[in-house]
Amino acid sequence: MIIDTHCHLDNIKYRDDLKEVLKKSIDSGVQKFIIPAADPRDLERAIELSETEENIYFAIGIHPYHTDDWTDEIFKYLDNPKCVAVGECGLDYFRLPKNEDEKIEYIERQKDIFRKQIQIAKAIRKPLIIHIRDASEDAKQILIEEKADEVGGVLHCYNADETLLELADHNFYFGIGGVLTFKNAKRLVNVLPKIPIEKLLVETDSPYLTPHPNRGKRNEPSYTKLVVEKMAEILELNFKEIADLTTENSKKLFNLNV
């Protein structure tokens, strides 16, 4: 059994054939799915899917690209039994404004919203789904300062930055996805064995970051098998060992009774 801990099944790219996508995934051994919040406008769809599909769960949060969409209103769903985390939230400095004052304001806004969501997660005792891009040092500092280890979480689409490995000691897991299979993923291939195996999770980030050899196509949860195969190859374990290990890690982090 495999759990896809990060798949945007609420995305419009699945509107026409989601049933088929789910069946294909389940037939391939992927039994549970977590939809992280990315765009608040898709939240209702994620909740609807979780209520109609027994094996779908969701998270609530504000992605760093959508800090201007912050509203307390979305967090009213945190007590929904299918809500398993806060996020995805975090920091992303990939596209910063060129104007220096605007850049500073943009970064501070992201930091403020990130801290707020960590505090929310701690208040309701649910883990975090963390998005970090070109902001490793700031993100790590905030997570440690805010004592996020009290609830822990996952570094979604772990970026192979070794400075973040320290967070394994702060109750954080590392989400490994299709990037691991890319030909230019040498950093992640080299770093993977340094991650404690009890801190590894599997994800797709569907419909994005489709693993080799399907790059260029829409990603979907069934492709987690390709990630698990690559992880097994690198860590010199067999497929079932990785699948079982990451499933148990997912159940522990997200408190999934499966």
Protein topology:
Blueprint: E1 2-4, H1 18-27, E2 30-35, H2 43-52, E3 56-60, E4 83-92, H3 100-124, E5 128-133, H4 136-145, E6 153-155, E7 172-176, H5 186-191, E8 200-202, H6 224-235, H7 239-254
Parallel strand pairs: 1-2, 2-3, 3-4, 4-5, 5-6, 6-7, 7-8
Helix pairs in contact: 3-4, 6-7
Question: In short, what is this structure?
Answer:
By secondary structure, the protein is an alpha/beta fold. It has helices at residues 18-27, 43-52, 100-124, 136-145, 186-191, 224-235, 239-254, and strands at 2-4, 30-35, 56-60, 83-92, 128-133, 153-155, 172-176, 200-202. It has a single domain (2-254), classed as Metal-dependent hydrolases (TIM Barrel).
Rg from Cα? 17 Å
- Do you know the CATH architecture? Alpha-Beta Barrel
Low-pLDDT segments:
none
Number of helical segments with 4 or more residues: 7
Give the mean pLDDT.
96
Number of domains: 1
Give the strand content. 15-25%
| Residues in helix, % | 25-40%
Could you explain how this protein is built, in words?
With 258 residues, the chain is of the alpha/beta class. It has a single domain, classed as Metal-dependent hydrolases (TIM Barrel, Alpha-Beta Barrel), CATH 3.20.20. It contains 7 helices and 8 strands. Strands 1-2-3-4-5-6-7-8 form an 8-stranded parallel β-sheet. Strand 7, helix 5 and strand 8 form a beta-alpha-beta unit. Helix 3 packs parallel to helix 4.
